[in-house]
Amino acid sequence: AISMVTFHHIVQGQRRSAFSFLNRVLADGGIFIMADWDNSVLPDRTIYYDLEHILMGVVFSNSAPSMPDQLKLGTEYLSVDNWKREAQQAGLRYSASRSKLGGLGPRAQANRSISGNRDFNIVFERGL
Q1: Could you give the 3-state DSSP secondary structure of residue 123?
Q2: Of 37, 79, 98, 111, which is most buried with the most CB atoms under 10 A?
Q3: How confident is the model over 67-80, as pLDDT tens digits?
Q4: Peptide bond preceding 43: is omega within 30 degrees of 0, i.e. cis?
């Protein structure tokens, strides 16, 4: 299973269910690859990440939000460690060896100077 920069759209109360579901449906030896954005440094990058979503609509649909409530996307951007913790609490097992990209673990991936979005990939295996 693969999630490409999507989990930050799942509200906190439903994320555990989503991770638990993934753990249940993965076959023996199956993996879940998660790519998302790390929000562990100050200042908080929520507004920056949300603007990336909003600007796509402005560019491609030629309309901008006109009311402040339209700027509330309901997104939540966690740190690599918090994403890992939530997935593990739902039964998934973190795979350090499979999470390496170019020899870097997820936190090091987010800290690369070329990673303006602080993006990372993390791999989980089916838990018991």
Answers
A1: strand
A2: 37
A3: 888 888 889 999 99
A4: yes
